[in-house]
Fold these 2 entries.
Entry 1:
Amino acid sequence: MSATLVYPESTAAVAGRRRKTKPARVVTHTDLDDRTLLEHAAARGEGTLTAHDTLSVSTGKFTGRSPEDKYVVDEPTSRDAIWWGDINQRMPEHRFDQLVSSVEAFLNRRATYTQHLAVGADNDYRYPVDLTTERAWVALFARHLFIVPGDDGDRGTGAPIRILHAPGYRVCADILGTRSSTVIALHPERRTIVITGTEYAGEVKKSVFTLMNYLLPERDI
């Protein structure tokens, strides 16, 4: 396990003059193990430890998925393979780019947890999964849901499935053109998933499996 320190630049105007402020220290926790993630989640107040030394968390107003807030990027490569409708709503690619940029900026200002995992039990059809989240407990959830690589580090082949998970971020629906500040957006060709405005971790699972349902049929699976 490792931690990478990032020092973003920061300035402030005070009493009509500009002065430099100390850089804020932002820590990215990379591939922490289960026990460490459990301790981080409890220490950060993300949940409470039960009598059985497990973590109990609240997902707020979302106790399940929010299908009305799910979007798929409308781009030429995957357009004809998507069953468009009330569930798979179209998102223009430039709006998705705006979303990614804003969520990356949000996460870069916070302590985050990154996990390098995999999905797919068959080695020949396994894909890497790169999750970045602001919640330690979601990183722990992902380690139980997906495959933690062994000593050989085998995570499959091909470009990784990238997940940006920012439940504390609220998008501006008027600017992004979404129904609400909660967004679950998928770019099939880039294998990128962005989740904002919901604490329900099941969105991580469902989004990856949705993407697998696009990738595997292309390989006659």
Entry 2:
Amino acid sequence: MNWKQIRENGVKKFLLWDDVYNIRIDLMLMSILLVLVISIVILFALDVYNHSIKVLLWLSYLVFTLICGGSTFIKELVIAIRKDRSPKSELEKLLENHSFRQLFKEYSTKELSLENFMFYEKLRELVSKYGMNGFIPHETLQQVENQFFKQDSPYELNIPSRTRKLFYALFENYEKPDSSSAELIEYANTTKVSDLYTIIYNDLLTNMSDTQSRLIETDVFQNWYAVFTIQRKQSVIIV
């Protein structure tokens, strides 16, 4: 255990952001549970039956629940509540900056979550090329499917099944015509960029925010943000 890092960065960073899988918290909870169990056994051995045992049993159950996923649930719930309270997330603002996008891409690559950033870039590309109200050609939508939605695709997204179903519903219009090329042309441009954006953006931002929550605790980000803040004050930021 690095006490110097704990003193510099605080217990919160040590327990939460430096430990993605909550292993440290679970180990602490297991130690507490062990102490509680030993205390209960001793009291039973001494034939002591009072409210103390009831309290210890209740605490043991609570700690066991936290070990079995309760602590992770509470952590994710707090993160979700914080996101809902902000009209526009800090991540969305930072992603407008080119240097931050590069930093985020590098960190996502190391964290094996590059697929979220790559799809974000694909959305930016589609908006830039066709406009938010522009139509996506069938061929382009198929490329998006092959890259991000098919099983074992290069950048398969980790998204809820409902979102995946909504995406594949976009293909229904393309599959309907089968009699003439005129009908094919009619159905060829029925999906807007905004349709794709609406379906996936919230889930995408949730995944990226999860990555951001760990990125902002790194020294690399802290150094970058210090420079970014100075440049912003001097109005020399290039996005």
